[in-house]
From TrEMBL:
Transmembrane segments: 39-61, 68-89, 145-176, 247-270, 276-296, 308-325, 390-409
Membrane topology: Multi-pass membrane protein
UniProt protein name: MFS transporter
Taxonomic placement: Bacteria, Bacillati, Cyanobacteriota, Cyanophyceae, Coleofasciculales
UniProt keyword terms in alphabetical order: Cell membrane, Membrane, Transmembrane, Transmembrane helix, Transport
Subcellular location per the Swiss-Prot or TrEMBL entry: Cell membrane
Organism from which the protein derives: Moorena producens (strain JHB)
Presence of the UniProt keyword Electron transport in the record: no
Keyword Metal-binding carried by entry: no
GO molecular function: transmembrane transporter activity
Domain of life, per lineage: Bacteria
Main location per the UniProt record: membrane
GO cellular component, one term: plasma membrane
């Protein structure tokens, strides 16, 4: 676990630096263009390549050394940072440069994340996998929480070139531990993959999951809940703005982010060694309940508490899903399986982002207008007017999550996954490591 923590600290510091640069150029882009569409395209360039390349990256990760994959991916991400710095300093930076560099960075991050997840199984004892997952989630949550604040404080002082220097400096904290730390890789990796068609390896992840119906069902449940999560997240801003000012929105979002940190801390000290599936079901039911409560009344305090509690469930659910895959998937094929698992889970979230706006604008807000057909019945309970369409949608989403979770629990292959599918990793770390 010590070697993992050393690597984790370096990756966390590098992630903070990357988010500082991301924030700075998001601000620059919006100030230069004033276009929400341009900003949305930049976000798309940061997410879409990861979805498309992840299965391919998984095939390479299983062929290559996981440690060197992380080193090279981090180094290439650093080259992207240097490229954008040079273009900005010389006054040649164009909007389309940001799109290309963001897409390339997304590709390198996909390789790095896939190798990092697969390497965790090699470095961490089985009983500590939940803690490792919690620390990983904690790093993401804390970086999202502090990077915008730090960037907002630093930008007026050091400006964009200074932010880039900080980002590039933090990159060394990610690469140096990986260069110094060594851990034994899987000896038979090349022999197992060398004689197979690469494209057969790419689709191997799907073929593997179809032979493990319990794992496939767990992934479908997780992706489905991500769909509802995506819808809820997008509609949080309009609902809160119907109740308070933009300043109040910032406070609510910060409180919600602290819920993610709390959930991650819970995972980082997790000691239970069994009943992971039941815990996933329990926290998913709680998530559905909190989504339901968030929309029940036009109350800022009720929404804030519900949102905080809801976001605290996310790291536990996603962390234990990750642990189940790490325990049940053989280490030598984890790159390919994770390369499929992650984009499937993310597709649900992305689809939720895409449909949330039309659902609210075209269906639910008109349904909860003061003169609508529902104003005299449902409107008397949850309120009418601006934001109550989002409230009704949240209520329905919460009910769907609860009912869907109860229905999924009836499937024995999923409910009994821990007992029926043997662990594919030993109790001790799969490979030795040293510093």
């Amino acid at each position: 676990m010590r070697i993992f923590i050393i690597i984790w600290i370096g990756q966390f510091l590098s992630l903070v630096g990357s988010r500082l640069t991301q924030f700075a150029f998001n601000v620059w882009l919006f100030q230069e263009t004033g276009s929400v569409t341009q900003f949305g395209l930049l976000v798309l360039c940061g997410s879409l390549p990861s979805l498309l390349i992840s299965p391919i990256a998984g095939g390479f990760v299983d062929r290559w050394s996981r440690r060197w994959t992380m080193i090279i991916a981090d180094f290439c991400a650093g080259l992207c940072t240097l490229s954008i710095a040079w273009l900005f300093i010389t006054g040649n930076l164009e909007i389309w440069h940001l799109y290309i560099i963001e897409a390339l960075s997304s590709c390198f991050s996909t390789f790095q994340a896939n190798a990092y997840a697969a390497a965790t199984t090699l470095l961490v004892p089985k009983e500590n996998l939940p803690r490792a997952s919690g620390l990983t989630s904690l790093g993401r949550g804390v970086s999202k929480l502090i990077a915008p604040v730090l960037a907002g404080m630093l930008l007026p002082i050091v400006h964009i070139p200074g932010i880039i220097v900080i980002d590039f400096a933090t990159l060394f904290f990610a690469i140096v531990p990986l260069m110094v730390v060594t851990f034994q890789e899987l000896n038979n990796l090349d022999e197992q993959t060398g004689n197979k068609s690469f494209w057969k390896e790419v689709i191997f992840g799907w073929n593997f999951l179809t032979t493990k119906p319990g794992l496939l069902a767990l992934l479908i449940l997780f992706a489905s809940n991500n769909l509802f999560t995506g819808i809820f997240n997008v509609l949080t801003t309009p609902l809160v703005l119907s109740l308070t000012s933009p300043t109040g929105l910032g406070i609510v979002l910060s409180i919600g982010s602290s819920g993610v940190v709390l959930g991650s801390l819970m995972m980082s000290i997790w000691k239970a060694q069994e009943h992971y599936i039941k815990t996933i079901f329990g926290f998913t039911l709680l998530a559905g309940l909190f989504i339901f409560l968030a929309g029940l009344r036009p109350s800022l305090s009720l929404f804030t508490v519900s949102d905080f509690c809801l976001l605290a469930t996310y790291p536990v659910i996603s962390g234990l899903v990750q642990v189940m895959f790490q325990k049940k998937v053989p280490p030598e094929v984890q790159g390919r399986v994770f390369g499929l698992k992650d984009p499937i889970a993310t597709v649900g979230l992305t689809l939720g982002y895409a449909i949330a706006g039309p659902l609210d604008d075209l269906i639910f807000e008109p349904l909860m207008a003061p003169d609508s057909i529902l104003a005299g019945n449902i409107g008397k309970i949850i309120g009418v007017g601006q934001g109550r369409g989002v409230g009704l949608l949240d209520i329905l989403l919460g009910l769907v999550v609860v009912v869907g979770t109860i229905a999924a629990y009836q499937y024995p292959r999923l409910r009994l996954l821990e007992e029926e599918l043997p662990d594919a990793i030993p109790d001790e770390p799969f490979a030795t490591s040293k510093f």
